[in-house]
Design goal:
The protein has 629 residues and is mainly beta. A hairpin with a 5-residue loop joins strand 20 and strand 21. The N and C termini lie far apart (63 Å). Bound molecules: (dicuprio-$l^{3}-sulfanyl)-sulfanyl-copper and dinuclear copper ion (CUA).
């Protein structure tokens, strides 16, 4: 109760420190612990004593591990892994029929940007969406049970789903853009030397069903062959819009390190997704490519505009008010702030400095509010809801805090005055996250820096070092480094949300189990021959017994197990490992899962519960008898 209270009113740090100081003094005194104390370095602010809960959930993308990791904030303790694109025997993911089907042919994904669902511009705690950069997919995780529910893709015509997944203020769409350009429709061949003429990028609008969260690709907008990078969705005055930055407006197809860093400015794309939706609804003479309506922005006015932006940018973020749009050029030490209101005026007045392949290029000076000298290698920007922005600096290994407009005269004359603080993060930082930064009301308080490239600060584990996160207290004027922790490979971005916004279930209730082969009574279980080479097993798991615990089949049979865990007690999970059959099911209480093996090896193979469930867990076993043909 008390902690929820804490997260709600966002206390200034002294109050927090006092609370924890009080909680800390006693145990530290008793243990004579030599660790961090409730003193100068502020360590207590992240200390969550045993039995206490964190204030926030932190959802890390797991990069090329293909997974999502859940941690608590402020402790940074990892709580859970949510397998998405990669099998995870610990959760039985990739072993059940359902999860196998969802993963399809792929055994990995490259998760970069988690996006929480929103209602009226704030997190509603329903779903978490993530992208797969490698195989052009997006996935939906339900925050009721922290399980992956849908994997959509590969998205047609899309190659390198990196600029994703950005959720609109009422979860109408997941907006995604391609990192790589290819000849369209996907599957067409053209030599890379013809890149400029024959290759294209794509922005896709993935429709989300407001009730079920089911995703489907609604429409796509064709773009020149730029590489699209990070984006964000508009809100308030910019609701209905989405923004991405591009690099490689040079349209180079080789040696991008040099060839894509020639021009002084690249483009940001301002995409009016409401207009795109209208074009599709009115069916304004659209082509379909691989079944998806494809909008050419040169033919459909108002769908897309380009805005010049500092060299080789790596992201663009809309402020909580939706008026200020901040983009950083990683090869220029500035973050550019655009005024969306001026942008609207500019497009009304056709204040363009030209066009690129039929897409108007808005006059830079007409829309820029200022260039903030944040420092070297700026990447991503987050907001605290108090009028401040925080930009990660990869090259400087720092975070810069700066003031959003409106700026006073002194500041507009000397933009360095907009910078109010800078903190070193000890590593090359990539993304950073503030709870609720992409909502209309960020929760502020904390900033988590997601760092790259180890610097010998931890125990040496060989040539491959873990990634690190650092926790920074942003509740005061000056940022304060609080805590450092290791993560799995490899967080790119994260989302953080107050714990009380999420309301997970404790068990799958028996009455909600709609699996057609669920069984609840040992009497109704059994082994049945359902075809010449097919056996179906209806099985129950409960402490500490399988019903049946002997399954007799013929060599070569396809054996399908429908396993129901009939427990209705939270965390009473039963596993289902079959020796030498490459099988490990994990069935949470109240769930039914289906597993299939081909019994191609004759002999006797024990199956056993892999999840510690009771004092007699070790006794929870059975035999698969495979009779030779
Ligand atoms: S990326 S470190 Cu989001 Cu894939 Cu910027
Ligand atoms: Cu059931 Cu261990």
């Amino acid at each position: 109760m008390f902690r929820i209270f804490l997260s709600k009113i966002r206390p200034p740090i002294p109050m927090r420190s006092l609370t924890y100081l009080f909680l800390l003094v006693l145990p530290l005194g008793l243990l004579g612990c030599g660790g961090s104390s409730a003193s100068d370095d502020g360590a207590p602010a992240s200390y969550v004593p045993p039995g206490e809960k964190d204030d926030y959930y932190l959802f890390y993308s797991g990069g090329h591990s293909g997974q999502v990791f859940v941690a608590g904030l402020p402790s940074l303790r990892e709580i859970q892994e949510i397998p998405v694109f990669t099998p995870s025997p610990g959760h039985g993911y990739g072993f059940s029929k359902k999860s196998k089907k969802m993963m399809g042919e792929y055994r990995w994904g490259d998760v970069h940007h988690p996006g929480l669902s929103k209602t009226d511009g704030t997190y509603d705690g329903r779903w978490l969406f993530v992208n797969d950069n490698a195989n052009n997919r997006v996935a939906r995780i339900s925050l009721r049970d922290f399980k992956t529910k849908q994997i959509l893709g590969p998205i047609p015509n899309s190659m390198g789903n990196h600029g994703s997944s950005f959720v609109t203020p009422n979860t109408e769409y997941l907006l995604v853009a391609t990192r790589f350009s290819v000849p369209l429709p996907k599957g067409t061949h053209a030599p890379v030397e013809t890149y400029e003429e024959n290759f294209n990028g794509i922005v896709s609008g993935v429709d989300i069903d407001p009730e079920t969260g089911e995703m489907e690709v609604g429409w796509q907008v064709k773009t020149p062959p730029f590489n699209w990078d990070l984006g964000s969705t508009g809100k308030g005055p910019s609701d209905g819009w989405a923004f991405w930055t591009s690099y490689n407006t040079e349209m180079a197809h080789d040696s991008l390190e040099i060839n894509a860093s020639q021009r002084d400015r690249d483009y940001a794309a301002f995409v009016n997704w409401e207009r795109a939706e209208e074009v599709v609804e009115n069916n304004e003479g659209l082509n379909r490519r691989n079944g998806v309506p494809l909008i050419d922005p040169a033919e459909h006015e108002g769908v897309m505009y380009f805005v010049p932006v500092s060299k080789s940018p790596h992201g663009i973020d809309a402020s909580p008010s939706g008026r200020w749009i901040a983009a950083s050029g990683k090869l220029q030490p500035t973050t550019t702030v655009f005024d969306f209101k001026q942008f609207k005026t500019a497009i009304e007045n056709e204040d363009f400095q030209g066009e690129f392949r039929g897409v108007p290029v808005v006059n830079y000076d007409a829309v820029v509010e200022g260039e903030v000298p944040v420092g070297q290698g700026p990447l991503h920007t987050q907001f605290d809801g108090e009028g401040n922005a925080y930009t990660s600096l990869f090259i400087e290994s720092s975070v810069t805090k700066w003031k959003l407009p409106p700026w006073d005269k002194e500041t507009t004359e000397d933009m360095s005055k907009a910078v109010t603080d800078k903190i070193s993060v000890h590593y090359n930082i990539g993304h950073l996250v503030i709870p609720g930064s992409d909502t209309k009301e960020p929760y502020g308080n904390w900033l988590v820096a997601m760092n790259k490239l180890q610097k010998g600060r931890g125990l040496n584990v060989g040539p491959e070092k873990p990634e690190t996160s650092q926790l920074i207290d942003i509740s005061g004027e000056e940022m304060e480094m609080i805590e450092e922790d290791y993560t799995r490979p490899e967080p790119h971005f994260a989302q953080a949300v107050p714990a009380d916004v999420i309301n997970p279930i404790e068990v799958y209730k028996k009455e909600n189990n709609d699996h057609p082969d669920a069984r609840w009574d040992p009497e109704n279980t059994g082994v049945e021959r359902t075809g010449p080479d097919e056996v179906t097993v209806h099985m129950i798991a409960k402490r500490s017994q399988y019903y049946p615990d002997k399954v007799e089949v013929q060599q070569g049979d396809k054996v399908t197990f429908h396993l129901t865990n009939i427990e209705q007690v939270s965390d009473m999970i039963h596993g289902f490992g079959i020796a030498q059959y490459n099988m490990n099911g994990v069935v949470p209480p109240g769930d039914t899962q289906t597993f299939t093996i081909t019994a191609d090896e004759a002999g006797v193979y024990p199956f056993y519960c892999t999840n510690f469930c009771s004092a007699l867990h070790q006794e929870m076993q059975g035999y698969l008898e495979v009779k030779p043909r």
